[in-house]
Sequence to fold (232 residues):
Amino acid sequence: MAQPLIHFKDADILNGEAVVLYGLNMDVMPGDLVYIVGKVGSGKTSIIRTAIAENPVGSCTEASACGFNLTSLHSRDIPFLRRRIGVVFQDFQLITDRSVEDNLEFVLRATGWKDKREMGQRITEVLKAVGMGTKAHKMPHQLSGGEQQRIAIARALLNKPRVILADEPTGNLDGETADEILQLLQRLNAEGTAIVMVTHNRYIYEKYPGRVFNCKNERCTEVVDEGIDVEL
Fold:
């Protein structure tokens, strides 16, 4: 039986020292497409930060991510956890004074890659996968917002993660460009990568259906009845 990639059981989710969500129960399985929705400030991003051990988990029965126990995770093991999870941010977070290729190589070196030829091959693979095969030598400022987000997705793919956590990945993009990014994430999901996407945009999860978790009133629960209106 497949094991969940992200697992929370009765977990309190923190923002700083304050609990923002109580008693979270969530299992993200291989190949899932999961949306975490809710108003700004409802705790959506805190779930992502907890899954990558940027925030400590609060009181809980169980909490794990990609095989790592989040309740007892040692700081030295956090980089190994993050090799197994791809993360895409709203604001791209590219290093502005380095080329696309150097941005990606920096991540590979930081996650233990050493062979220059192997790194070059992997960079070529991920850039081709996101339709940016000719952009390796461009600087971030030479790219459009959509192109920068494609590079950010390529970066998330470098270590062949089984799950990508995308925090408002289209928030800074126009509608047409946002659709292109969503279609790319849909394709990656269809190829077997689980996607967990934080959004407060109803259009996204209505056009690209998946499982929906709604954060509201300090709780985050799965919406199992399609007739229930999600308040955003």
User: Anything to note?
Assistant: Residues 175-190 form the longest helix (16 residues).
